[in-house]
Amino acid sequence: MGAQVDMTFPLYGAIFRKYHDRLAKIPQRKHSHLFIQQSNSSRILKKPILIGLVTMLLSAFILTLNTASGSTQISVQPNASTVWGTDETLTINITVSEVTNLYGWQFKLYYEPKILNGTSINEGSFLKSAGKTFWKKSFTDAYNETHGCAIAFCTLVGNMTGVTGSGVLAIVSFKTKTLGSSILDLSETVLGKADSTEIPHNVVDGAVQVVKAVHDVAIRNVILSSSQIVEGHIAEVVVSVANEGNRTENFTVTLYRNETVIAAQTVIDLPRRSNTNLTFNWNTSGLSQGTTYVIKAEASKVLEETDLENNVFIYGTVSIVQGSHDVAITNVVPSPTIVFQGDKVNVAVVAANVGDYTESFTVTIYCGDAVIGKQAVNNLVYGHNFVLNFIWDTTGAATNTTYRFRAVSSSVPGETNLTNNNFTSASITVYPLGWLSIKIVSLVPCNQLGEPKTAFALGTVAYFKIVVESKSFKAENLLLTINLYDAPGNAIGVVSFKGPIAPGTSSFILGTPILTTATVGVATAHANALSDWPHLGGTPYCPEAVATFKIGGS
Questions:
Q1: pLDDT tens digits, 363-398
Q2: Rounded distance, CA 90 to CA 49, Å?
Q3: DSSP 3-state assignment of 127?
Q4: Predicted pLDDT at 85
Q5: Which are the contacts of 223, defined by CB distance < 8 A and separation ≥ 6?
Q6: Could you tell me the pTM of the whole model?
Q7: Which of 34, 117, 269, 351 is deepest in the core (most CB within 10 A)?
Q8: Considering the domain 217-321, what is its CATH architecture?
Q9: Do 17-211 and 438-552 have matching folds?
């Protein structure tokens, strides 16, 4: 191998003396660029091949020659590496696998000094995990006329059997110098036990390919929800950007309307061969109706980038248009729908802005022809709705009568569609308050103490607090039932109470297990107050009460 630097190690103790003596007698040999897996017990000559062929078939030359008994292996990891550009750091591990009672080791690692500059070699964690070690290393790019070489030796110190398993023996780092390929050739490897017994093993070389750094960023797409935007609206623009090169890049993406900048964002550390999306919010306030703009996105040029054609993406034209004024009533919900005279009914009205501008208007609620109330809706943003609650006191209302509620929104300036400005509810019925009147005042999911709770897990007990009011002058028979249903409507639990109820207000806490087969999600509880079981002639005292709760996983 030509002139050689003296790199003989003072091997520790007698344990490795015979290995050192044996290795010293091995004749020096030329190293070619074909890398193979070899056995330390049977050396195989390496035939020269062209470095260009290595570059083309970098991963194809890892050969498996099972000449050593057992499966112990010393290898370069990763076996094949690609580094983009010069003056980049490459770090590889020298590893051992499936070894038993390893007490010491030694290796040489040859490489192409034209391609790589050796910078450091450090002891791995495998051997020193068992205790104190003696470690020796040497690194030179001029080991001989054609190769650089890293040499390392390590042995445990003290009375111990060694280390069993797999791990890292050494960590070797390089700097890339020029483009090309280099074999990482493990040679003269030694694995030994504390009793000086050699451990047979296979050897797997490695290789590195240094390729040209490619810098190329691109705009792949620009997405808008519509090519027509109402003046004053904020349009969301999604820009898809990519790093099509092989180096991590930082760059700026600018969004334009014609040649005016809308906004700019910086992309930080976008990995090679990856992409990401950027979201821009384009405020069109102040732009004239009827104008048209060309929307485009542009990525700034990165260092050494030559392909700039894909740095710009033109979406096309976007028109600024006049919007509409349109408010609506989308729902009216009275609750409860069956009441006794003197009860109060809550009427929830959903008002919506279905136009394109922020609006203020008034909502009036009617029961028949009578006005229940009015409320103002101020500055309701387009695309949003608002819930207003009105209270109707049934005192003095005719009994055994059905009522409906109608909500009407006032028109706003410029509004032409008035068909959606009113909405009529479903009906409710008012019943007379008799001498015997028992009703459910409230039904609330709770814990055992009656404290409100919104969710229960599958297989657990769900509790409900029921408040019942009796306006009778004496104790009456009462049957309370609660039936639970999951979201699809499957019965998942039932509980009941039967007994006397005194005049006034009474509270009950009833619990029932939730079936483990129930569907997770929103569930309902239905409570009824009856005089007895229906098959025994019982009748309801009042309308059913309903409460919702959530079922979670077990």
A1: 999 999 999 999 999 999 999 999 999 999 999 999
A2: 24
A3: helix
A4: 87
A5: 237, 238, 239, 240, 315
A6: 0.51
A7: 351
A8: Sandwich (2.60)
A9: yes
